Amino acid sequence: MSDNRIRRTTCLVGVAAAIAAAGCTTQAQHDDEPMASSVTIADQWASSAETGMAAVFGTFTNTGHHDARAVSGSSDVAGRVEVHEVAADATGVKSMRPKEGGLTIPADGSHALVPGGDHLMLMDLKQPLPPGSEVTLTVEFEDGSTLPVTAQVRDFAGADEDYQPSIGASAPHHDHG
Questions:
Q1: Is the full-model pTM beyond 0.70?
Q2: I need a labelling partner for 158 at 20 to 30 A (CA). Which of 19, 31, 41, 88 fits?
């Protein structure tokens, strides 16, 4: 092989290696992105309440390359924010309860928070949430990143399920969710 041909081949191999390395660097940068950076929420709203607790609904969308897991939250209007689900027992009775492990928003997908299904709960309300007002909260993800959320408060009677607090919690039973 001529010297020029060897140089061109070496040069092409070097360029290919640089492109591949850049691709790996870009993927590594995506892997290091906070979960919250690729998640948005749309059509969010909260149930009105005088005391106790209120539910937050909407649709999370994840434009990232990896699943994002919402595990908790905080709000100035609540003692705590929990991720909840509604599940039926063996007799078909629906109960609202904390969702073990949080909720997953799939990569390049969405996850709906709906009455009678997964939702966020504002627990131990510090003030009434009247219809027409807004409530702000911060959703926390498994990696510690956070997503600020503002939701309009609406009248909502609940999805006719019982509340089952987490073990050790002293919350009363309410129909809500």
A1: yes
A2: 41
